[in-house]
Model the fold of this input.
Amino acid sequence: MKRKTSPIIPVVTWIIILAALAPVLWMLLISFKQRVDIISFSVLFKPTLENYKTVFQKYDFLRFILNSTIVVVATTAISVFLGTLAAYGLARFQFKKKESLAFGILSLRMLPPMAVVIPFFIMARYTHLLDTQLLLIIVYLGFNIPFTIWMMRGFIEDVSLSIEESAWLDGCTRLEGFCKVVFPSIFPGLAATSIFCFIQSWNEFALAFFLTSFNSRTVPTIVNSFISVLGVLWGEMAAVGVVSILPIVIFTMFVQKYLVKGLTMGAIKG
Done:
């Protein structure tokens, strides 16, 4: 017999989904409103693209998007590559104080950005890296690599060592065994980790705001331009919000089938 599902569960699920999407939908509506319509809560209005035109023409928003794209793609790729290799070492090799080292790596991720922004600023000033994309990439690597190591270590440990040893017996080197046996097994986890690194780097505000001034400003920092003594430009700010979430949505859609599998890897062991 099929177990009957309570009708309350779908209703509660849809309520939670709508509650989560309500701010995004409201931001989308505001981005198409004229300034006189923004203060009203009506959903009936004459839509306009003026807010988007202002953002791209007056504030050169395309340059901010390009800066964010370069920094985030480079940070995510390097973090996943180096973090996965380091995670493999922690998962497969035995050495003294391994867990202490692993906790030390994780502690780097616990540092709040405001606690390290001044040291980063001083070092960047002496190395002439202020207001450069390279500086943001280096700084973001310091936070994303520890996160990647801890995420990927768990995924690698879920792959049986005996399978990898079988590849060694067949003549594979350790690197070939990793590429042919371990990597395909941890790819869903790799996709999930990449999404988190992408989101963390794309949405980071404090470090990008204090370490850049004009040439390398990223998308989140432009929000500060819409706040002045005369008020807040809600329409332009909403337009920036809508455009800024599109890369994350698109990237997530491409790896969606790996995301759920990656997040549930290791949840059930038999």
Confidence is low (pLDDT under 50) at residues 266-270. Residues 182 and 204 are 32 Å apart (CA to CA). The longest strand covers residues 227-228.
